[in-house]
Write a sequence for this structure.
């Protein structure tokens, strides 16, 4: 797991929301350092993120993407990038594929709730029993949009780190980073590592190799970490990883606030 960003701590950034006549201030704090809070946040986000992959019967794993889970109280569902699902459909058309989320075998076509028309998001039904068997947690709802210059955590399971040490056994690795938001549009969030920003290893692992291919992280969550005035830590889904360039230089995400609480996707 790696963290990306400036060596200098970012200032706190405040946003507000109204609850009736009361005003609540949410504060973003993103120290780019090896703090226990950042490490714990990374572990928590990894617990919310799984892998979705497919293979032919008796064959090796063909491709993989990332997937996370949302519980809106109205519905429980998995979320990945639309192009990950379309990649499965393309492979399945050429040759029948078996698809899994972790150790759970699924038929994505039967579980599909919705896909974005212009947004790179797809959602799928999952039961509470299945989620418990996977051992994953949900990313808190509702979505929050980060500010430009603020920090977000990104998490996924890139295909280059996929290993198959024995027949019918496959291992994946989480890659998690803290990145600075470069731009926010009505549909997307982008993180760009600037030339004067350096990578920092905060969890005791080596830094990613130069030009590392992060394909497979698509569909993973982009989350914002916040504190309340009473110093309670909160984290919320912000976007779905839709595109990435080598070694975290650029990561784009489709904004999650286009997902409705029933799992359908507007946009």
């Amino acid at each position: 797991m790696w963290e990306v960003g400036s060596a200098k701590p970012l200032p706190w950034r405040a946003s507000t929301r109204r609850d009736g006549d009361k005003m609540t201030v949410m504060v973003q704090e993103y120290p780019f350092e090896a703090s226990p809070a950042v490490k714990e946040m990374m572990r928590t986000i990894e617990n919310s993120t799984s892998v979705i992959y497919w293979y032919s019967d008796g064959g090796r794993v063909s491709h993989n993407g990332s997937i996370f889970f949302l519980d809106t109280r109205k519905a429980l569902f998995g979320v990945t990038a639309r192009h990950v699902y379309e990649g499965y459909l393309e492979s399945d058309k050429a040759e029948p594929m078996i698809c899994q989320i972790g150790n759970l075998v699924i038929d994505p076509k039967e579980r599909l709730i919705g896909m974005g028309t212009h947004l790179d998001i797809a959602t799928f039904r999952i039961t509470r029993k299945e989620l418990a068997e996977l051992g994953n947690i949900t990313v808190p709802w509702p979505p929050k949009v980060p500010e430009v210059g603020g920090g977000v955590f990104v998490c996924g399971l890139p295909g280059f780190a996929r290993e198959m040490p024995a027949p019918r056994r496959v291992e994946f690795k989480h890659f998690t980073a803290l990145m600075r938001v470069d731009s926010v549009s009505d549909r997307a969030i982008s993180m760009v590592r600037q030339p004067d920003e350096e990578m920092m290893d905060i969890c005791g692992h080596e830094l990613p190799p130069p030009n590392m291919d992060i394909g497979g992280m698509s569909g993973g969550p982009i989350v914002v970490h916040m504190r309340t005035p009473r110093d309670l830590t909160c984290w919320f889904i912000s976007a779905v990883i839709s595109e990435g360039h080598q070694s975290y230089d650029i990561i784009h995400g489709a904004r999650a606030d286009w997902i409705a609480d029933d799992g359908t996707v507007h946009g």
